[in-house]
Amino acid sequence: MHITMYTDGSAMGNPGPGGYGVVLMAGQYRKELSQGYRLTTNNRMELMAVIVGLEALKIPQSTVTIYTDSQYVVNAVEQRWVFGWEKKNFAGKKNADLWQRFLKVYRCHSVAVKWVKSHAGNIENERCDQLAAAAAKSPQLLEDTEYEFQSIKINNEHDRSSNLFNG
């Protein structure tokens, strides 16, 4: 059975509170997924939406068409950049944790990723946008552990360098 997936991610402030929304459709079946995070980025949520959607599939080797308004995700997959990043062990790449998680689940299915223009009247893309925005405003925001850890690490390095130099 062919599965159609729409995804969207959102971050208020970028970085800031964020969320993702996913709509999965197969025949007469439909499922919506969403979750919010207290501190994250738009690109992380765009990618997280795709990952969570793929992880929700119960049948291995499913044929999946993913529609996303994220050129970050589309180009990384369709231009095959992510496979080059993987060969270089994601050296210097942002969101390496999510790209590794993506590749693990991506390889379990036959996946095509297609770009759709955001806010252009595509009903399912608009629904994902609503889900992502609502999730970002939810009172039950999760911790984007890797992002927050990296942010703290960068801030600590900045603080140390500030202690060494004037101005």
Helix content: 40-55%
List low-confidence stretches: 158-162
| Number of helices in the DSSP assignment | 6
What is the CATH H-level superfamily?
Answer: Ribonuclease H-like superfamily/Ribonuclease H
Give the beta-strand count.
Answer: 5
Broad structural category: alpha/beta
Order of helices and strands: EEEHEHHHEHH
CATH class: Alpha Beta
Domains (count): 1
Main pleated sheet: 5 strands, mixed
Protein model, in words:
The chain has 6 helices and 5 strands; from the N terminus they run E-E-E-H-E-H-H-H-E-H-H. It has 167 residues and is α/β, with parallel strands linked by helices. The protein has one domain: 2-Layer Sandwich (Nucleotidyltransferase, domain 5). Strands 3-2-1-4-5 form a 5-stranded mixed β-sheet. A hairpin with a 4-residue loop joins strand 1 (2-11) and strand 2. Helix 1 runs parallel beside helix 4 (96-106). Residues 158-162 have low confidence and may be disordered.
List keywords for this structure.
167 residues; 27% strand; single chain; 6 helices; 5-stranded mixed beta sheet; alpha/beta; Nucleotidyltransferase, domain 5
